[in-house]
Specification:
The chain has helices spanning 71-78, 102-108, 126-136, 141-154, 159-162, 172-184, 202-219, 230-236, 254-259, 264-271, 312-316, and strands at residues 22-35, 42-55, 60-64, 86-91, 94-95, 109-112, 190-194, 222-226, 239-244, 247-253, 322-325, 328-330. With 351 residues, it is of the alpha/beta class. The longest helix is centred in the middle third of the chain and has 18 residues, at 202-219. It is an enzyme of class 7 (translocase).
Protein backbone atom coordinates (compact mmCIF):
# COMPACT_ATOMS: atom_id res chain seq x y z
CA UNK A 1 0.00 0.00 0.00
CA UNK A 2 1.40 3.41 -0.99
CA UNK A 3 2.38 5.63 1.91
CA UNK A 4 0.25 8.75 2.18
CA UNK A 5 2.04 12.11 2.23
CA UNK A 6 1.01 15.62 3.20
CA UNK A 7 2.41 17.37 0.11
CA UNK A 8 3.99 16.80 -3.29
CA UNK A 9 7.54 18.15 -3.46
CA UNK A 10 8.61 19.95 -6.62
CA UNK A 11 10.78 17.75 -8.85
CA UNK A 12 14.50 18.51 -8.94
CA UNK A 13 16.35 20.11 -11.83
CA UNK A 14 18.59 17.35 -13.19
CA UNK A 15 20.72 18.77 -15.98
CA UNK A 16 21.06 22.44 -15.13
CA UNK A 17 19.83 25.53 -16.95
CA UNK A 18 21.53 24.73 -20.28
CA UNK A 19 19.85 21.33 -20.67
CA UNK A 20 16.41 21.55 -22.35
CA UNK A 21 13.50 20.68 -20.12
CA UNK A 22 11.90 18.74 -22.97
CA UNK A 23 13.49 17.48 -26.20
CA UNK A 24 11.31 16.03 -28.94
CA UNK A 25 12.83 14.06 -31.82
CA UNK A 26 10.94 12.87 -34.93
CA UNK A 27 7.53 12.83 -33.26
CA UNK A 28 5.11 11.06 -35.60
CA UNK A 29 1.40 10.30 -35.58
CA UNK A 30 -0.54 8.94 -38.57
CA UNK A 31 -4.25 8.16 -38.57
CA UNK A 32 -6.10 5.72 -40.79
CA UNK A 33 -8.01 7.51 -43.54
CA UNK A 34 -9.95 4.50 -44.77
CA UNK A 35 -9.53 3.03 -48.25
CA UNK A 36 -9.80 4.65 -51.65
CA UNK A 37 -11.90 1.71 -52.86
CA UNK A 38 -13.36 -1.39 -51.28
CA UNK A 39 -10.15 -3.40 -51.72
CA UNK A 40 -7.88 -0.45 -52.38
CA UNK A 41 -4.81 0.69 -50.54
CA UNK A 42 -5.28 2.10 -47.05
CA UNK A 43 -4.98 5.88 -46.85
CA UNK A 44 -3.00 7.53 -44.06
CA UNK A 45 -3.54 10.98 -42.55
CA UNK A 46 -0.10 12.38 -41.68
CA UNK A 47 -1.20 14.52 -38.73
CA UNK A 48 2.26 14.91 -37.18
CA UNK A 49 5.20 13.94 -39.36
CA UNK A 50 8.71 13.98 -37.91
CA UNK A 51 8.36 16.96 -35.58
CA UNK A 52 11.49 17.88 -33.55
CA UNK A 53 12.08 20.76 -31.13
CA UNK A 54 13.43 21.64 -27.68
CA UNK A 55 11.79 23.59 -24.85
CA UNK A 56 14.26 25.45 -22.63
CA UNK A 57 13.73 25.69 -18.90
CA UNK A 58 11.70 28.71 -17.87
CA UNK A 59 10.67 29.77 -21.38
CA UNK A 60 7.31 30.02 -23.11
CA UNK A 61 7.30 28.34 -26.52
CA UNK A 62 4.38 29.45 -28.67
CA UNK A 63 3.01 27.13 -31.37
CA UNK A 64 1.07 28.58 -34.33
CA UNK A 65 -0.31 27.41 -37.65
CA UNK A 66 -3.54 26.92 -39.56
CA UNK A 67 -6.30 24.65 -38.29
CA UNK A 68 -5.40 21.03 -38.98
CA UNK A 69 -1.63 21.58 -39.05
CA UNK A 70 -1.05 19.26 -36.06
CA UNK A 71 -0.71 21.66 -33.10
CA UNK A 72 -3.22 20.02 -30.77
CA UNK A 73 -2.25 16.51 -31.87
CA UNK A 74 1.35 17.33 -30.94
CA UNK A 75 0.21 18.48 -27.49
CA UNK A 76 -1.77 15.30 -26.92
CA UNK A 77 1.18 13.17 -28.02
CA UNK A 78 3.44 14.95 -25.52
CA UNK A 79 0.99 14.05 -22.74
CA UNK A 80 0.59 10.51 -24.15
CA UNK A 81 -3.16 10.97 -24.43
CA UNK A 82 -2.81 9.01 -27.68
CA UNK A 83 -0.11 6.50 -28.68
CA UNK A 84 2.92 7.68 -30.63
CA UNK A 85 3.70 6.08 -33.98
CA UNK A 86 7.33 7.13 -33.75
CA UNK A 87 9.83 9.46 -32.15
CA UNK A 88 11.25 9.95 -28.68
CA UNK A 89 10.79 12.34 -25.77
CA UNK A 90 13.56 13.29 -23.36
CA UNK A 91 12.50 15.12 -20.21
CA UNK A 92 15.40 16.87 -18.47
CA UNK A 93 17.86 14.25 -19.68
CA UNK A 94 15.62 11.25 -18.94
CA UNK A 95 14.13 9.35 -21.87
CA UNK A 96 10.41 8.82 -21.42
CA UNK A 97 9.80 5.09 -21.17
CA UNK A 98 13.13 3.53 -20.21
CA UNK A 99 14.18 6.21 -17.69
CA UNK A 100 10.94 8.00 -16.84
CA UNK A 101 7.56 6.32 -16.44
CA UNK A 102 4.38 7.80 -17.86
CA UNK A 103 3.09 8.31 -14.30
CA UNK A 104 6.17 10.33 -13.40
CA UNK A 105 6.01 12.27 -16.68
CA UNK A 106 2.45 13.38 -15.95
CA UNK A 107 3.55 14.38 -12.47
CA UNK A 108 6.04 16.75 -14.14
CA UNK A 109 3.86 17.87 -17.08
CA UNK A 110 0.26 19.01 -17.05
CA UNK A 111 -2.14 20.32 -19.67
CA UNK A 112 -4.90 22.95 -19.79
CA UNK A 113 -7.45 22.40 -22.56
CA UNK A 114 -9.55 24.82 -24.60
CA UNK A 115 -12.97 23.66 -23.40
CA UNK A 116 -13.03 24.65 -19.75
CA UNK A 117 -16.39 22.99 -19.08
CA UNK A 118 -15.69 19.62 -20.74
CA UNK A 119 -12.36 19.46 -18.89
CA UNK A 120 -14.04 19.30 -15.48
CA UNK A 121 -16.09 16.47 -14.04
CA UNK A 122 -19.62 17.92 -13.62
CA UNK A 123 -20.25 15.65 -10.60
CA UNK A 124 -17.25 16.85 -8.61
CA UNK A 125 -17.03 20.10 -6.70
CA UNK A 126 -14.23 22.48 -7.61
CA UNK A 127 -12.30 21.48 -4.50
CA UNK A 128 -12.67 17.78 -5.31
CA UNK A 129 -11.51 18.32 -8.91
CA UNK A 130 -8.32 20.09 -7.86
CA UNK A 131 -7.60 17.67 -5.00
CA UNK A 132 -8.13 14.56 -7.13
CA UNK A 133 -4.67 14.53 -8.77
CA UNK A 134 -2.65 14.93 -5.56
CA UNK A 135 -4.69 12.18 -3.87
CA UNK A 136 -3.95 9.81 -6.78
CA UNK A 137 -0.26 10.54 -6.23
CA UNK A 138 -0.39 9.70 -2.54
CA UNK A 139 -1.31 12.94 -0.78
CA UNK A 140 -3.79 12.40 2.09
CA UNK A 141 -7.29 13.81 1.75
CA UNK A 142 -6.96 16.68 4.21
CA UNK A 143 -3.69 17.96 2.75
CA UNK A 144 -5.04 17.66 -0.80
CA UNK A 145 -8.10 19.75 0.07
CA UNK A 146 -5.97 22.37 1.79
CA UNK A 147 -3.77 22.52 -1.31
CA UNK A 148 -6.85 22.89 -3.52
CA UNK A 149 -8.07 25.88 -1.52
CA UNK A 150 -4.61 27.48 -1.53
CA UNK A 151 -4.42 27.12 -5.30
CA UNK A 152 -7.86 28.66 -5.77
CA UNK A 153 -6.54 31.75 -4.00
CA UNK A 154 -3.42 31.69 -6.21
CA UNK A 155 -5.55 31.84 -9.36
CA UNK A 156 -7.68 34.67 -8.01
CA UNK A 157 -10.77 32.83 -6.73
CA UNK A 158 -12.14 33.06 -3.20
CA UNK A 159 -11.87 29.52 -1.79
CA UNK A 160 -14.78 30.06 0.59
CA UNK A 161 -17.06 31.00 -2.29
CA UNK A 162 -15.92 28.61 -4.99
CA UNK A 163 -14.55 25.43 -3.35
CA UNK A 164 -17.95 23.77 -2.95
CA UNK A 165 -19.45 24.91 -6.23
CA UNK A 166 -19.90 22.75 -9.32
CA UNK A 167 -18.55 23.60 -12.81
CA UNK A 168 -21.93 24.69 -14.18
CA UNK A 169 -22.10 27.38 -11.48
CA UNK A 170 -18.97 29.15 -12.76
CA UNK A 171 -18.32 31.41 -15.74
CA UNK A 172 -15.95 30.37 -18.53
CA UNK A 173 -13.11 32.48 -17.15
CA UNK A 174 -13.61 31.12 -13.64
CA UNK A 175 -13.63 27.52 -14.92
CA UNK A 176 -10.39 28.11 -16.82
CA UNK A 177 -8.80 29.46 -13.65
CA UNK A 178 -9.90 26.25 -11.92
CA UNK A 179 -8.30 24.19 -14.70
CA UNK A 180 -5.06 26.12 -14.25
CA UNK A 181 -5.19 25.49 -10.50
CA UNK A 182 -5.81 21.79 -11.11
CA UNK A 183 -2.82 21.65 -13.46
CA UNK A 184 -0.60 23.22 -10.77
CA UNK A 185 -1.77 20.83 -8.04
CA UNK A 186 0.92 18.27 -8.92
CA UNK A 187 3.72 20.88 -8.86
CA UNK A 188 4.63 20.39 -12.55
CA UNK A 189 7.53 22.14 -14.22
CA UNK A 190 5.96 22.20 -17.71
CA UNK A 191 2.38 23.22 -18.48
CA UNK A 192 0.90 22.74 -21.97
CA UNK A 193 -1.80 25.31 -22.76
CA UNK A 194 -3.85 24.20 -25.78
CA UNK A 195 -5.98 27.18 -26.89
CA UNK A 196 -6.49 27.85 -23.18
CA UNK A 197 -7.76 31.42 -23.63
CA UNK A 198 -9.38 31.27 -27.08
CA UNK A 199 -12.89 30.63 -25.74
CA UNK A 200 -12.78 33.65 -23.40
CA UNK A 201 -13.85 37.20 -24.16
CA UNK A 202 -11.01 39.71 -24.51
CA UNK A 203 -11.22 41.28 -21.06
CA UNK A 204 -11.19 37.89 -19.33
CA UNK A 205 -8.50 36.65 -21.74
CA UNK A 206 -6.20 39.50 -20.68
CA UNK A 207 -6.74 38.65 -17.01
CA UNK A 208 -5.92 34.98 -17.57
CA UNK A 209 -2.79 35.84 -19.60
CA UNK A 210 -1.54 38.10 -16.82
CA UNK A 211 -2.32 35.35 -14.32
CA UNK A 212 -0.27 32.87 -16.37
CA UNK A 213 2.70 35.25 -16.37
CA UNK A 214 2.41 35.76 -12.61
CA UNK A 215 2.24 32.00 -11.95
CA UNK A 216 5.20 31.38 -14.24
CA UNK A 217 7.34 33.75 -12.20
CA UNK A 218 6.10 32.45 -8.84
CA UNK A 219 6.44 28.73 -9.55
CA UNK A 220 9.29 28.78 -12.08
CA UNK A 221 7.10 27.23 -14.78
CA UNK A 222 7.78 26.48 -18.43
CA UNK A 223 4.92 26.82 -20.94
CA UNK A 224 4.07 25.31 -24.31
CA UNK A 225 1.42 27.76 -25.53
CA UNK A 226 -0.75 26.80 -28.52
CA UNK A 227 -3.01 29.45 -30.04
CA UNK A 228 -4.54 30.80 -33.25
CA UNK A 229 -4.33 34.35 -31.91
CA UNK A 230 -0.96 35.61 -33.14
CA UNK A 231 -1.14 38.78 -31.02
CA UNK A 232 -1.55 36.69 -27.87
CA UNK A 233 1.33 34.43 -28.91
CA UNK A 234 3.58 37.42 -29.50
CA UNK A 235 2.66 38.85 -26.09
CA UNK A 236 3.30 35.75 -24.01
CA UNK A 237 6.00 33.79 -25.89
CA UNK A 238 9.79 33.86 -25.80
CA UNK A 239 10.12 31.70 -28.93
CA UNK A 240 7.61 30.64 -31.57
CA UNK A 241 7.30 27.38 -33.53
CA UNK A 242 5.39 27.48 -36.83
CA UNK A 243 3.72 24.32 -38.13
CA UNK A 244 2.34 23.56 -41.57
CA UNK A 245 0.67 20.30 -42.60
CA UNK A 246 2.19 18.24 -39.78
CA UNK A 247 5.73 19.63 -40.02
CA UNK A 248 7.78 22.37 -38.36
CA UNK A 249 8.65 25.02 -40.96
CA UNK A 250 10.25 27.65 -38.72
CA UNK A 251 11.23 28.21 -35.09
CA UNK A 252 12.96 31.15 -33.46
CA UNK A 253 12.86 34.06 -30.97
CA UNK A 254 9.51 35.79 -31.09
CA UNK A 255 10.62 39.28 -32.16
CA UNK A 256 13.13 37.96 -34.69
CA UNK A 257 10.45 35.76 -36.21
CA UNK A 258 7.99 38.67 -36.38
CA UNK A 259 10.49 41.16 -37.79
CA UNK A 260 12.42 38.83 -40.10
CA UNK A 261 10.56 35.60 -40.97
CA UNK A 262 12.56 33.33 -43.25
CA UNK A 263 9.88 30.92 -44.45
CA UNK A 264 7.24 32.16 -46.95
CA UNK A 265 4.47 30.49 -44.95
CA UNK A 266 5.48 32.35 -41.78
CA UNK A 267 5.49 35.61 -43.74
CA UNK A 268 2.01 34.87 -45.12
CA UNK A 269 0.69 33.83 -41.70
CA UNK A 270 1.80 37.08 -40.07
CA UNK A 271 0.52 39.12 -43.02
CA UNK A 272 -2.94 37.69 -42.38
CA UNK A 273 -3.09 39.26 -38.91
CA UNK A 274 -5.85 41.89 -38.62
CA UNK A 275 -4.67 45.43 -37.94
CA UNK A 276 -6.28 48.77 -37.02
CA UNK A 277 -3.59 50.69 -38.91
CA UNK A 278 -5.11 51.93 -42.23
CA UNK A 279 -1.63 52.11 -43.77
CA UNK A 280 -1.10 48.39 -43.17
CA UNK A 281 -4.47 47.22 -44.46
CA UNK A 282 -4.39 43.87 -46.29
CA UNK A 283 -5.50 44.43 -49.89
CA UNK A 284 -4.88 40.94 -51.26
CA UNK A 285 -4.68 37.45 -49.81
CA UNK A 286 -1.13 36.64 -48.58
CA UNK A 287 -1.38 33.13 -50.04
CA UNK A 288 -3.84 31.45 -52.38
CA UNK A 289 -5.72 28.19 -52.07
CA UNK A 290 -6.43 25.80 -49.24
CA UNK A 291 -3.89 23.59 -47.45
CA UNK A 292 -3.34 20.30 -49.33
CA UNK A 293 -4.94 17.11 -48.10
CA UNK A 294 -2.80 15.57 -45.31
CA UNK A 295 -3.73 12.12 -46.65
CA UNK A 296 -1.60 12.77 -49.72
CA UNK A 297 0.68 15.74 -48.94
CA UNK A 298 2.81 17.26 -51.71
CA UNK A 299 6.31 15.94 -52.25
CA UNK A 300 9.31 17.98 -51.18
CA UNK A 301 8.37 21.15 -49.33
CA UNK A 302 4.69 20.76 -48.48
CA UNK A 303 4.11 24.48 -48.93
CA UNK A 304 5.35 24.60 -52.53
CA UNK A 305 1.83 24.28 -54.01
CA UNK A 306 0.92 27.66 -52.46
CA UNK A 307 4.32 29.36 -52.39
CA UNK A 308 4.94 32.32 -54.72
CA UNK A 309 8.69 31.50 -54.78
CA UNK A 310 8.37 27.78 -55.63
CA UNK A 311 10.93 26.31 -58.01
CA UNK A 312 11.53 22.71 -59.19
CA UNK A 313 13.84 21.96 -56.24
CA UNK A 314 10.99 22.71 -53.84
CA UNK A 315 8.89 19.78 -55.09
CA UNK A 316 11.86 17.47 -55.57
CA UNK A 317 13.60 17.75 -52.18
CA UNK A 318 12.29 18.12 -48.63
CA UNK A 319 14.15 20.97 -46.90
CA UNK A 320 15.48 20.31 -43.39
CA UNK A 321 15.44 22.92 -40.64
CA UNK A 322 18.51 25.09 -41.21
CA UNK A 323 20.06 27.60 -38.79
CA UNK A 324 19.50 31.11 -40.16
CA UNK A 325 20.47 32.90 -36.94
CA UNK A 326 21.03 32.32 -33.21
CA UNK A 327 18.28 29.89 -32.10
CA UNK A 328 16.45 30.60 -35.40
CA UNK A 329 15.80 27.80 -37.91
CA UNK A 330 13.76 27.62 -41.10
CA UNK A 331 12.92 24.71 -43.41
CA UNK A 332 13.09 26.54 -46.73
CA UNK A 333 15.36 26.05 -49.74
CA UNK A 334 15.75 29.83 -49.98
CA UNK A 335 17.50 29.79 -46.59
CA UNK A 336 19.82 26.82 -47.27
CA UNK A 337 23.11 27.67 -49.00
CA UNK A 338 23.59 25.73 -52.21
CA UNK A 339 20.13 24.18 -52.14
CA UNK A 340 19.57 24.80 -55.83
CA UNK A 341 16.98 27.55 -55.37
CA UNK A 342 17.77 30.76 -57.25
CA UNK A 343 17.26 32.83 -54.09
CA UNK A 344 19.41 30.58 -51.86
CA UNK A 345 22.70 31.94 -50.48
CA UNK A 346 25.81 30.76 -52.28
CA UNK A 347 27.79 28.05 -50.53
CA UNK A 348 30.89 29.34 -48.73
CA UNK A 349 34.09 28.28 -50.47
CA UNK A 350 36.32 25.98 -48.44
CA UNK A 351 39.59 27.61 -47.33
Amino acid sequence: MRQKTTALAATDDVGGARQPLLSIRNLTKHFSGGREKLFGKKRVVRAVDGVSFDIAKGETLGVVGESGCGKSTTARLLMHLMPLDGGEMIYDGNKVGPDLSLRELRRRMQMVFQDSYASLNPRLTIEDSIAFGPKVHGVDDGAARTLARDLLVKVGLDANRFANRYPHELSGGQRQRVNIARALALSPRLVILDEAVSALDKSVEAQVLNLLNDLKREFGLTYLFISHDLNVVRYISDRVLVMYLGEVVEIGPVEELWNSPRHPYTTALFAAMPTLDPDRRTTEAPIAGDPPNPINPPSGCRFHTRCPFAEPVCSATTPALYAVGPAHQAACHMAIPGSGHSKAPKEAMAA
